[in-house]
What we know:
The protein is of the alpha+beta class and about 350 residues long.
Amino acid sequence: MELKKTPFYDRHVEAGGRMVAFAGYEMPIEFSGGVDEHLSVRNHLGIFDVSHMGEITISGDGAMDYVNMLTTNDVRGLDLFQAQYTAMLNDRGGIIDDLVVYRRKYDYLLVVNAVNAERDLAWIGERVPGDVTVKDMSAETAQIAVQGPEAAGLVERVCGESVAKLGYFRSMGARIANSPCLVSRTGYTGEDGLEIYLDVMGAAEVWDALVEGEPKPVPCGLGARDSLRLEMAFRLHGNDMDETTTPFEAGLGWIVKMEKADFFGKKALIEQKQHGVPKRLIGLVSEARRFPRPGYGVWSGDRKVGTVTSGGFSPSLGRGIALAYVESGYAAKDRGFRIDARGRMIEAAFVKGPFYKKPKTE
Protein backbone atom coordinates (compact mmCIF):
# COMPACT_ATOMS: atom_id res chain seq x y z
CA MET A 1 0.00 0.00 0.00
CA GLU A 2 1.31 3.43 -0.95
CA LEU A 3 2.13 5.57 2.06
CA LYS A 4 0.24 8.82 2.52
CA LYS A 5 1.99 12.15 2.95
CA THR A 6 1.01 15.02 5.23
CA PRO A 7 0.85 18.61 3.87
CA PHE A 8 4.30 19.18 5.42
CA TYR A 9 6.13 16.28 3.78
CA ASP A 10 8.23 18.49 1.45
CA ARG A 11 9.17 20.74 4.38
CA HIS A 12 10.37 17.72 6.36
CA VAL A 13 12.54 16.47 3.50
CA GLU A 14 14.00 19.95 2.93
CA ALA A 15 14.83 20.19 6.65
CA GLY A 16 16.70 16.88 6.55
CA GLY A 17 14.06 14.80 8.30
CA ARG A 18 14.66 11.04 8.35
CA MET A 19 11.39 9.66 7.04
CA VAL A 20 9.84 6.36 8.12
CA ALA A 21 6.55 4.53 7.62
CA PHE A 22 4.13 5.12 10.51
CA ALA A 23 0.37 4.52 10.63
CA GLY A 24 0.18 4.51 6.84
CA TYR A 25 2.09 7.81 6.48
CA GLU A 26 5.63 8.86 5.68
CA MET A 27 6.59 10.67 8.87
CA PRO A 28 9.85 12.15 10.20
CA ILE A 29 11.36 10.14 13.04
CA GLU A 30 14.06 12.74 13.65
CA PHE A 31 15.77 15.84 12.25
CA SER A 32 18.78 16.96 14.33
CA GLY A 33 18.60 13.89 16.57
CA GLY A 34 16.13 12.53 19.09
CA VAL A 35 17.97 13.68 22.22
CA ASP A 36 18.57 17.20 20.88
CA GLU A 37 14.93 17.54 19.85
CA HIS A 38 13.72 16.17 23.17
CA LEU A 39 15.79 18.62 25.22
CA SER A 40 14.80 21.52 22.95
CA VAL A 41 11.15 20.89 23.86
CA ARG A 42 11.93 20.54 27.58
CA ASN A 43 14.00 23.74 27.70
CA HIS A 44 12.84 25.92 24.81
CA LEU A 45 10.60 25.08 21.87
CA GLY A 46 9.83 22.37 19.34
CA ILE A 47 7.35 21.88 16.50
CA PHE A 48 5.77 18.56 15.47
CA ASP A 49 3.71 17.46 12.50
CA VAL A 50 0.87 15.37 13.94
CA SER A 51 -1.36 15.45 10.86
CA HIS A 52 -1.46 11.64 10.83
CA MET A 53 -3.92 11.76 13.75
CA GLY A 54 -7.57 11.06 13.00
CA GLU A 55 -10.35 13.64 13.32
CA ILE A 56 -14.02 12.64 13.51
CA THR A 57 -16.96 15.01 13.99
CA ILE A 58 -20.28 14.05 15.61
CA SER A 59 -23.23 16.43 15.21
CA GLY A 60 -27.00 16.48 15.40
CA ASP A 61 -29.65 16.66 18.11
CA GLY A 62 -28.40 13.51 19.81
CA ALA A 63 -24.68 14.26 19.53
CA MET A 64 -24.01 14.94 23.20
CA ASP A 65 -25.81 11.81 24.40
CA TYR A 66 -24.09 9.66 21.77
CA VAL A 67 -20.59 10.95 22.56
CA ASN A 68 -21.32 10.33 26.23
CA MET A 69 -22.34 6.75 25.43
CA LEU A 70 -19.21 6.21 23.34
CA THR A 71 -16.73 7.50 25.92
CA THR A 72 -15.84 6.85 29.57
CA ASN A 73 -15.54 10.47 30.68
CA ASP A 74 -18.55 12.81 30.89
CA VAL A 75 -18.98 15.42 28.15
CA ARG A 76 -22.16 16.90 29.60
CA GLY A 77 -20.27 19.42 31.71
CA LEU A 78 -17.94 20.63 28.96
CA ASP A 79 -17.96 24.35 28.25
CA LEU A 80 -17.95 25.60 24.67
CA PHE A 81 -14.48 24.97 23.16
CA GLN A 82 -13.36 22.93 26.16
CA ALA A 83 -11.55 19.62 25.57
CA GLN A 84 -11.51 16.36 27.54
CA TYR A 85 -9.25 13.30 27.65
CA THR A 86 -11.24 10.08 27.52
CA ALA A 87 -11.42 6.54 26.12
CA MET A 88 -13.70 4.34 24.03
CA LEU A 89 -14.25 0.79 25.27
CA ASN A 90 -15.50 -2.45 23.80
CA ASP A 91 -18.18 -4.51 25.51
CA ARG A 92 -15.52 -6.33 27.57
CA GLY A 93 -14.19 -3.01 28.95
CA GLY A 94 -11.08 -3.13 26.75
CA ILE A 95 -9.70 0.14 25.44
CA ILE A 96 -10.48 0.54 21.73
CA ASP A 97 -8.71 3.90 21.78
CA ASP A 98 -7.85 6.84 24.00
CA LEU A 99 -8.78 10.21 22.54
CA VAL A 100 -9.50 13.89 23.09
CA VAL A 101 -13.03 15.27 22.67
CA TYR A 102 -13.68 18.95 21.90
CA ARG A 103 -17.06 20.57 22.35
CA ARG A 104 -17.53 23.04 19.52
CA LYS A 105 -20.44 25.26 18.59
CA TYR A 106 -22.16 22.87 16.20
CA ASP A 107 -20.48 19.53 16.83
CA TYR A 108 -18.08 17.44 18.88
CA LEU A 109 -14.60 16.86 17.50
CA LEU A 110 -12.96 13.54 18.38
CA VAL A 111 -9.18 13.39 17.89
CA VAL A 112 -8.14 9.74 17.74
CA ASN A 113 -4.89 7.84 17.33
CA ALA A 114 -3.64 7.48 13.78
CA VAL A 115 -3.28 3.69 13.81
CA ASN A 116 -6.84 3.30 15.14
CA ALA A 117 -8.67 5.92 13.07
CA GLU A 118 -10.38 3.55 10.60
CA ARG A 119 -11.34 1.06 13.33
CA ASP A 120 -12.64 3.88 15.55
CA LEU A 121 -14.75 5.24 12.71
CA ALA A 122 -16.23 1.80 12.05
CA TRP A 123 -17.07 1.29 15.75
CA ILE A 124 -18.72 4.71 15.97
CA GLY A 125 -20.58 4.28 12.68
CA GLU A 126 -22.02 0.87 13.55
CA ARG A 127 -23.84 2.28 16.57
CA VAL A 128 -24.84 5.75 15.42
CA PRO A 129 -28.48 6.69 16.16
CA GLY A 130 -30.72 8.31 13.57
CA ASP A 131 -30.48 11.84 14.99
CA VAL A 132 -26.66 11.92 14.78
CA THR A 133 -24.28 12.54 11.87
CA VAL A 134 -20.71 11.18 11.89
CA LYS A 135 -18.05 12.54 9.51
CA ASP A 136 -14.44 11.50 9.00
CA MET A 137 -12.48 14.75 8.65
CA SER A 138 -9.00 13.20 8.81
CA ALA A 139 -8.03 13.68 5.16
CA GLU A 140 -9.11 17.33 5.25
CA THR A 141 -7.43 18.23 8.54
CA ALA A 142 -3.81 19.12 9.32
CA GLN A 143 -2.48 19.27 12.86
CA ILE A 144 0.63 20.97 14.25
CA ALA A 145 1.92 20.72 17.82
CA VAL A 146 4.03 23.59 19.17
CA GLN A 147 5.48 22.46 22.49
CA GLY A 148 7.85 23.85 25.11
CA PRO A 149 8.16 26.77 27.57
CA GLU A 150 8.29 29.27 24.68
CA ALA A 151 5.33 27.84 22.72
CA ALA A 152 2.71 30.42 23.70
CA GLY A 153 5.02 33.30 22.82
CA LEU A 154 5.63 31.99 19.31
CA VAL A 155 1.98 31.22 18.53
CA GLU A 156 0.81 34.55 19.95
CA ARG A 157 3.26 36.49 17.76
CA VAL A 158 2.34 34.54 14.63
CA CYS A 159 -1.44 34.62 15.00
CA GLY A 160 -1.75 38.03 16.65
CA GLU A 161 -4.18 36.66 19.25
CA SER A 162 -3.66 36.40 22.99
CA VAL A 163 -3.14 32.71 23.74
CA ALA A 164 -1.11 33.12 26.95
CA LYS A 165 -4.29 33.14 29.07
CA LEU A 166 -5.88 30.20 27.25
CA GLY A 167 -6.60 27.57 29.92
CA TYR A 168 -5.37 23.98 29.89
CA PHE A 169 -7.57 21.80 27.65
CA ARG A 170 -9.29 24.92 26.32
CA SER A 171 -9.35 26.03 22.69
CA MET A 172 -10.08 29.12 20.61
CA GLY A 173 -10.39 30.25 17.02
CA ALA A 174 -7.52 32.16 15.39
CA ARG A 175 -5.97 32.91 11.99
CA ILE A 176 -2.40 32.10 10.99
CA ALA A 177 -1.10 33.03 7.53
CA ASN A 178 -4.71 33.83 6.56
CA SER A 179 -5.91 30.33 7.45
CA PRO A 180 -8.60 29.84 10.11
CA CYS A 181 -7.36 27.53 12.88
CA LEU A 182 -8.51 25.93 16.10
CA VAL A 183 -5.78 26.56 18.69
CA SER A 184 -5.83 24.27 21.73
CA ARG A 185 -3.80 24.26 24.96
CA THR A 186 -3.02 20.56 24.77
CA GLY A 187 -0.12 18.28 23.89
CA TYR A 188 1.62 14.96 24.44
CA THR A 189 4.94 16.13 25.88
CA GLY A 190 4.26 17.27 29.45
CA GLU A 191 5.38 20.79 28.57
CA ASP A 192 3.27 23.86 28.04
CA GLY A 193 2.17 23.90 24.45
CA LEU A 194 -0.48 24.37 21.82
CA GLU A 195 -1.96 22.15 19.14
CA ILE A 196 -3.27 23.77 15.97
CA TYR A 197 -5.99 22.23 13.76
CA LEU A 198 -6.64 23.59 10.27
CA ASP A 199 -7.65 22.68 6.76
CA VAL A 200 -4.93 21.02 4.68
CA MET A 201 -5.32 23.79 2.10
CA GLY A 202 -2.94 26.51 3.21
CA ALA A 203 -1.43 24.34 5.95
CA ALA A 204 2.09 24.52 4.50
CA GLU A 205 2.03 28.32 4.75
CA VAL A 206 1.02 28.05 8.41
CA TRP A 207 3.95 25.68 9.04
CA ASP A 208 6.29 28.17 7.36
CA ALA A 209 4.99 31.05 9.46
CA LEU A 210 5.61 29.08 12.66
CA VAL A 211 9.03 27.72 11.67
CA GLU A 212 10.20 31.17 10.59
CA GLY A 213 8.75 32.90 13.67
CA GLU A 214 10.49 34.02 16.85
CA PRO A 215 11.54 32.31 18.98
CA LYS A 216 12.50 29.78 16.34
CA PRO A 217 11.20 26.27 17.02
CA VAL A 218 13.27 23.12 16.48
CA PRO A 219 11.58 20.64 14.08
CA CYS A 220 10.94 17.41 15.99
CA GLY A 221 10.11 13.87 14.92
CA LEU A 222 8.33 10.82 16.25
CA GLY A 223 11.36 9.75 18.29
CA ALA A 224 11.31 12.83 20.51
CA ARG A 225 7.52 12.70 20.74
CA ASP A 226 7.78 9.17 22.13
CA SER A 227 10.56 9.86 24.64
CA LEU A 228 8.81 13.01 25.87
CA ARG A 229 5.50 11.22 26.47
CA LEU A 230 7.24 8.30 28.16
CA GLU A 231 8.99 10.59 30.65
CA MET A 232 5.52 11.78 31.67
CA ALA A 233 4.21 8.19 31.84
CA PHE A 234 1.62 9.06 29.19
CA ARG A 235 0.18 5.84 27.80
CA LEU A 236 0.57 4.87 24.15
CA HIS A 237 -2.27 2.86 22.66
CA GLY A 238 -1.01 -0.37 21.17
CA ASN A 239 1.83 -0.52 23.71
CA ASP A 240 0.50 0.38 27.16
CA MET A 241 -3.17 -0.31 26.53
CA ASP A 242 -5.33 -2.04 23.96
CA GLU A 243 -8.60 -3.92 23.63
CA THR A 244 -7.39 -6.53 26.14
CA THR A 245 -6.71 -3.98 28.91
CA THR A 246 -9.20 -1.89 30.87
CA PRO A 247 -8.79 1.70 32.11
CA PHE A 248 -8.50 0.40 35.70
CA GLU A 249 -5.58 -1.85 34.72
CA ALA A 250 -3.92 0.97 32.76
CA GLY A 251 -4.13 3.43 35.67
CA LEU A 252 -6.74 5.54 33.88
CA GLY A 253 -9.60 5.16 36.33
CA TRP A 254 -9.72 8.95 36.65
CA ILE A 255 -11.21 9.25 33.16
CA VAL A 256 -13.99 6.76 33.93
CA LYS A 257 -17.18 8.29 35.31
CA MET A 258 -19.02 5.27 36.69
CA GLU A 259 -21.85 7.52 37.92
CA LYS A 260 -23.01 8.03 34.32
CA ALA A 261 -26.22 6.17 33.49
CA ASP A 262 -24.48 4.04 30.88
CA PHE A 263 -21.64 3.81 28.39
CA PHE A 264 -20.21 1.04 26.23
CA GLY A 265 -18.15 -1.27 28.44
CA LYS A 266 -19.60 -0.10 31.76
CA LYS A 267 -21.02 -3.50 32.72
CA ALA A 268 -17.60 -5.15 32.36
CA LEU A 269 -15.98 -2.42 34.47
CA ILE A 270 -18.56 -2.88 37.23
CA GLU A 271 -17.66 -6.57 37.36
CA GLN A 272 -13.94 -5.80 37.43
CA LYS A 273 -14.40 -3.32 40.26
CA GLN A 274 -16.16 -6.03 42.24
CA HIS A 275 -13.54 -8.72 41.62
CA GLY A 276 -10.36 -6.63 41.34
CA VAL A 277 -7.88 -6.20 38.48
CA PRO A 278 -5.47 -9.03 37.59
CA LYS A 279 -2.68 -6.67 36.51
CA ARG A 280 -1.60 -3.05 36.84
CA LEU A 281 0.57 -0.70 34.84
CA ILE A 282 3.54 0.61 36.84
CA GLY A 283 6.61 2.75 36.24
CA LEU A 284 10.16 1.44 36.59
CA VAL A 285 13.46 3.32 36.58
CA SER A 286 16.96 1.89 36.25
CA GLU A 287 20.53 3.20 36.51
CA ALA A 288 21.88 0.51 34.15
CA ARG A 289 23.57 1.31 30.84
CA ARG A 290 21.30 -1.18 29.08
CA PHE A 291 17.83 0.29 28.71
CA PRO A 292 14.50 -1.50 29.10
CA ARG A 293 12.62 -2.23 25.90
CA PRO A 294 9.06 -3.37 25.13
CA GLY A 295 8.68 -7.11 25.59
CA TYR A 296 11.34 -7.48 28.28
CA GLY A 297 10.24 -9.59 31.24
CA VAL A 298 9.84 -8.07 34.71
CA TRP A 299 10.89 -10.17 37.72
CA SER A 300 10.44 -9.86 41.44
CA GLY A 301 12.59 -12.29 43.40
CA ASP A 302 12.68 -15.57 41.46
CA ARG A 303 9.29 -15.00 39.82
CA LYS A 304 8.42 -13.38 36.49
CA VAL A 305 5.56 -11.03 37.33
CA GLY A 306 5.10 -8.91 34.21
CA THR A 307 6.28 -7.42 30.93
CA VAL A 308 7.61 -4.04 29.79
CA THR A 309 5.22 -2.27 27.40
CA SER A 310 7.17 0.99 26.80
CA GLY A 311 10.80 1.62 27.66
CA GLY A 312 13.98 3.41 26.70
CA PHE A 313 16.47 6.12 27.63
CA SER A 314 15.25 9.28 29.33
CA PRO A 315 17.24 12.26 27.97
CA SER A 316 16.06 14.47 30.84
CA LEU A 317 17.03 12.01 33.59
CA GLY A 318 19.96 10.24 31.94
CA ARG A 319 18.70 6.77 32.85
CA GLY A 320 16.43 3.99 31.66
CA ILE A 321 12.69 4.20 32.27
CA ALA A 322 9.82 1.86 31.51
CA LEU A 323 6.11 1.23 31.83
CA ALA A 324 5.19 -2.37 32.56
CA TYR A 325 2.22 -4.51 33.44
CA VAL A 326 2.74 -6.62 36.55
CA GLU A 327 0.49 -8.89 38.56
CA SER A 328 -1.63 -6.61 40.73
CA GLY A 329 -0.18 -7.97 43.97
CA TYR A 330 3.27 -6.78 42.91
CA ALA A 331 2.28 -3.20 42.01
CA ALA A 332 3.90 -1.63 45.07
CA LYS A 333 7.01 0.44 45.73
CA ASP A 334 8.33 -1.91 48.42
CA ARG A 335 8.77 -4.67 45.85
CA GLY A 336 12.19 -5.17 44.31
CA PHE A 337 12.20 -5.53 40.52
CA ARG A 338 14.59 -6.72 37.84
CA ILE A 339 14.15 -6.44 34.09
CA ASP A 340 15.41 -9.26 31.87
CA ALA A 341 17.27 -7.44 29.09
CA ARG A 342 17.94 -10.39 26.78
CA GLY A 343 19.50 -12.49 29.50
CA ARG A 344 21.06 -9.71 31.54
CA MET A 345 19.15 -8.66 34.63
CA ILE A 346 18.72 -4.90 35.21
CA GLU A 347 17.86 -3.70 38.71
CA ALA A 348 14.82 -1.39 38.62
CA ALA A 349 12.85 0.65 41.14
CA PHE A 350 9.10 1.33 41.29
CA VAL A 351 8.06 4.89 40.36
CA LYS A 352 4.60 6.36 40.89
CA GLY A 353 3.43 9.10 38.57
CA PRO A 354 5.57 10.77 35.89
CA PHE A 355 9.27 9.96 35.72
CA TYR A 356 10.11 13.59 34.92
CA LYS A 357 8.93 16.48 37.04
CA LYS A 358 9.49 20.07 35.92
CA PRO A 359 11.96 21.86 38.22
CA LYS A 360 10.26 24.50 40.37
CA THR A 361 11.15 28.09 39.56
CA GLU A 362 11.85 30.67 42.25
